[in-house]
Amino acid sequence: MKEFRSWRRHGRSAVLRARSLWRGALRRMRLDPRRAPVRGHRAASRLRRLVPAAWLAAPLLAALLLPLIIVPLRSGGGTEPPAAPQATAGPSPAAAEAVQPQVSVYLSRSGQIETLPLEDYVSGVVAAEMPADFELEALKAQAVAARTFIVRRLRAGDRSGVPVPRADVVDTVSHQAYVSQDTLEREWAAGGRGADLAKIRRAVLETRGVVMVYQGQPITASFFSSSGGYTENSEEYWSTAVPYLRSVASPWEREITPEWAVTYTFTDSELRSKLGLGEEAVPVTATASGSRAAQTVSSGGGALPAEVLSLTSGHRVKEISVAGTVFRGREIREKLGLRSSQFTWKREGGKVRITTYGNGHGVGMSQWGANGMAREGGTATQILKYYYSGVGFAQVSTLLKK
Prior knowledge:
About 40% of the residues lie in helices and about 15% in strands. The protein has 13 helices and 15 strands. The relative contact order is 0.11.
């Protein structure tokens, strides 16, 4: 009630002040109704118009002044107005670039070394390793895999397979394929592929600094083009069992991969030469007992008989006997230049027809499989956790501390 009386008193004062202001205005205009004579009909008419308007304006002015009276009363109750938030300045673009580790790439065609920030290197790898028209989530998965591969090498100081001492990695599939920055700017950005380059750089930016780890260490992030339906256990293609490189089903490739199945044709003499078999190789006369053979190829009159002895967990050829000599499926692939070690061997018309399924060694992430998962709504994280069993994620900054 006390506060109400105060507001009422102040409100009356405001009205009186408004009336005083109006009278002052009239005096300055020489139209004071009590002191200045009204000269003529026009002046009287003007005065009659001003008086009602001024009286109507007085309450409005009082209403406007009331908040000025009330606000100090509220703030006097102990509630302070909130302080304005203070802006926090992030690192400048130059500072962000400065904290990136540098990667030195040996360019195999020119023999030169290109040194550049990590994230630019990853963009060059993604551009070389995966088609830009793949789904964004597949490109992001590829960016994380590529970044993990090089960070593992940098962390370990591994320069194996590099022909010069000052480079960290080469630009071929011996490590990771890579497109130089000059080529990206000249042939992509200025050559009509600016949208593709922007998409790749977006994938790299959205995964910036992220690598895969297993028990706190960067993983061997192997990847390949496409599978024949399953990926491979690491020890069945290489020699070491790696806990996160396990065989998983990868059913997406068959429907979306161009040239998923490719057939090669060889003469007997070509096969003998490429496989290092003598002309008098002894034909197979018995099958291996207890084997997981998927097929037995007829001798075709004694000319290079072949028999698949066993398959891997990833359904690839593990061992095959050709004219009495046992080969690993990987050996056949490498000696004959096949796309995959998942193949069939068939004799037709005096020649051998070998049909392969998928493309690559089969260990780790299938790139076409990743795209198939992304098409079905899979995220980069889901893709990576599927193809690399039991992995987690970490930031480069925590793994490459100076």
